[in-house]
Design a protein that fits this description.
The chain is α/β, with parallel strands linked by helices. It has 2 domains: 11-192 and 233-259, NAD(P)-binding Rossmann-like Domain (Rossmann fold), CATH 3.40.50; 194-231, no CATH class. Helix content is 45%, strand content 13%. It has helices at 20-31, 43-54, 71-85, 109-130, 158-178, 196-209, 213-224, 234-245; strands spanning 11-15, 35-40, 61-65, 90-93, 141-145, 184-190, 256-259. The chain has a 7-stranded parallel β-sheet with strand order 3-2-1-4-5-6-7, sandwiched between helices. Helix 4 links the parallel strand 4 (90-93) and strand 5. The radius of gyration is 18 Å and the shape is globular.
Length: 268
């Protein structure tokens, strides 16, 4: 049996595919031959992402406007993606809200419950809607994106840590339940990644402190102790998604890949 990274003939749906890491993953899967459906809440952003992806090669890009907080909208979106190409092989859960920063002991309960609903439960809604439709012949994949806060203690991001840790646990359970159907469920925990959101934050911090954005980034690298000494590019995180989506991951189940440049420091 020859294992291949190509995704020709397969269909992928990426939530949060209109920008950031989700868009990078959509571009990477499309470059390997997959038809990609982008799910998000903002039509204009999705259409801009569609043009960007289509510019890199042949078409086969679908945009689906839906909110992962809406059960019926999620179910309709998954059915639309499946009907579009007559199959659904890969689902990537990447849609996520910006989470509150501050001491966990002071976090409002509504902030925590809203964050869990928007990300962890949102991922579950998508996975549940996908499982009856997803291919069972060996190409079925669900990939959940869980922030590195799930794996390491950083002051004032307790809400993010709890939400992402729940995604990691959910990934393990879904993997066990989907494995008998031949569907592989795994996750990716990205390190500090140069998405537009972070670039804008760096620029604002730099202006406030009379620094350059590069100095802000370098300071964060030093404070966090990132072993590779730099931030990730979105396409580096997307490369892990291509691996998990392809035949190369055919014996990988229930794992969360930490693509973090050495940010995590666990011994085991």
């Amino acid at each position: 049996m020859t294992l291949d990274i190509r995704l020709d003939g397969r269909t992928a749906l990426i939530t949060g595919g209109g920008s950031g890491i989700g868009l990078a993953m959509a571009e990477a899967l499309h470059a390997q031959g997959a038809a990609v459906a982008l799910l998000g809440r903002t039509k204009a952003k999705l259409e801009a992402a569609e043009r960007q992806i289509a510019a890199g090669g042949e078409g086969r890009v679908l945009t689906v406007v839906a909110d992962v907080n809406d059960v019926e909208a999620v179910a309709d979106a998954l059915r639309e993606a499946h009907q579009w190409q007559g199959r659904l092989d890969i689902v990537i859960n990447c849609a996520a809200p910006l989470l509150a920063v501050g001491p966990l002991a002071e976090a409002d309960e509504a902030v925590m419950s809203d964050a869990l609903n928007a990300k962890t439960v949102g991922y579950l809604r998508v996975a549940r809607a996908a499982l009856p439709l997803i291919e069972k012949g060996g190409t079925g994949r669900i990939i959940n994106i869980a922030g590195m806060a799930a794996h390491m203690l950083v002051p004032n991001i307790g809400v993010a840590a709890a939400v992402n840790a729940a995604v990691v646990a959910m990934t393990s359970y879904l993997a066990a339940e989907a494995a008998p159907q031949g569907v592989l469920v795994n996750g990716i925990s990205p390190g500090m990644t140069l998405t537009q959101v972070w670039l804008d934050r760096h620029a604002a911090t730099a202006e406030a402190k009379n620094l350059t954005p590069e100095q802000v980034r370098d300071g964060m690298v030093e404070n966090l102790g990132i072993r590779l000494g730099r931030w990730a590019r979105p396409e580096e995180i997307a490369a892990a998604a291509v691996f998990l989506a392809s035949d190369l991951s055919s014996y990988v189940s229930g794992q969360v890949l930490q693509v973090d440049g050495g940010l995590g420091k666990s011994v085991i």
